[in-house]
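INFO  loader      accepted 1 record
INFO  loader      residues=181
INFO  predictor   begin
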Amino acid sequence: MLWRKSFRWTLKRLNCFLKTNYYVEPRYTLKLDASWSPIEIIDSFKGFNMCYTGRANVVLNYSDDFFPAVIVLKNYVRCSFMSYACNRKNVIWRDKNTCQYCKIRFSSSELTMDHVVPKSRGGEKAWTNIVACCKQCNNRKGDKTPEEARMPLVKIPRVPHWTIHILLRDKEIPEEWLDFI
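INFO  predictor   done
INFO  writer      dumping C-alpha cells
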C-alpha cells in the first residue's frame, strides 16, 4: 500500500515535468558554445535536458532555481552552418521594408518578393536573386530583368550575416541574458 501511494505521487511529479497536469509558463534558454558565444535560443526543457545528460553546464538559472536561463556547451560548435531561411518575412527585414525599385518604405503587408532574374528565365529562390518590392513595381517589372524594365535596384541583394541579435528581434530579452549577448 505504501508503494502504491509513492507511485501515484511520482506520476504526478512526472506529469509536472511533461507539462500535462500543470500550466508551465514558456521559458527559453540562451545556449552558448564552449567559447561563450551565443549560438541559439532553445526551450528551457531542452536546456534542462542538455544539462541533465551532460552535454552542457548551467551558467545561470531563472529565479525559480530550476530551469536554466543560460547554458554553455562542453564542445565547440562551428557557426558556419547558421543562416536564415529565404522567406518573405526575412527578405522584407533584410531590405528594411523598402521597395528595392522605387525606394519607398511600406508596411510588410504591402510588399511582395520579387525575383531579380525571373523564375521563367531560370532565376532561383535565393538570397542573391530575391528583393522586397511593392505591388505596383512588381506589376510594372513583370517578367523582365531590372535592366530590361529600366528599373535599377536600390542595392544589390545579398545573404544577411548571422548574429544572435537577429534571432532576438521579435523577442523580449530576459535580464538574465544581458551579460552574455
